[in-house]
What does this fold into?
Amino acid sequence: MNKKTITGKVILAGAGPGDPELITMKAARYLREADVILTDRLVSDEILIRHVQPYAKIIYVGKQCGRRLSTSQETINDLLVHYARLGKLVVRLKGGDVSVFANIMDELETLVVNNIPYEIIPGITASSGAAGYAGIPLTARNYATSVRFLTYYKSDIVSDEYWKELARTNDTLVFYMSSETLPKVVAKLTANNIDSMKLLAIVEQATTPFQKVHIINLYEFENKYAGQSFISPSLIIIGKVVALHEKFAWLSNSNSNEYYFKPMTNQVISINETDKLHKHVS
It folds into this structure.
């Protein structure tokens, strides 16, 4: 007699940009019901403390640019399949929203190929969180009618023609995961004569107690910020709407240089290693 296959379910959920109160009620409910949580680095520990049951297994599968400790996507995919096939309810918890620069495609394809049921639970993306907590309405009337979500991590992903178009547009530009390449972003836009009325906002650790907002004219960036590093995660907003920060900012800059999301200190290597590496936050 063939054994009946027991299949669990995977919930792909966004945790929001940092503030633990920005998680959705639906994502919080699934966390309370979950047997296993695979969580990114950019998820507040407070979310796990508040919503995860003591019996649940939390596995840290974060990625961090420039650190060898980052968990491979293949390992994450294997873990999703492994625990779902054990009949577990698995929550794959991602910072921000699961559909915006969250590498959801690989995980969805893995679940579909392996016939594993899933749900997608959206979250507040970093651009919405950073803009809201910085008092910058992204599509303020008479300032911008559209917003573009972008990333720039290597020179060949944006053509010269597109840089020209980005410099001309009145759209608000939001760059994810681009703080390290920000000098190149600024250089490309200023070389294409971007309007000096369009300002640059760098929002460090948005929506957290350590949030800092830096506002500057793009043509002054090199003189003021040359060689400066910004704490991850940092979001970049460029456009005329940035000028509204001065009028509508409601949250003061932090004086701290602490990390809200701690740098990674361990790595999930294989499924057999997870019992050694997982822990419950308390």
User: Anything to note?
Assistant: Confidence is low (pLDDT under 50) at residues 276-282. The beta strands are 9-14, 36-39, 57-60, 89-94, 118-121, 147-151, 172-176, 199-204, 212-217, 234-239.
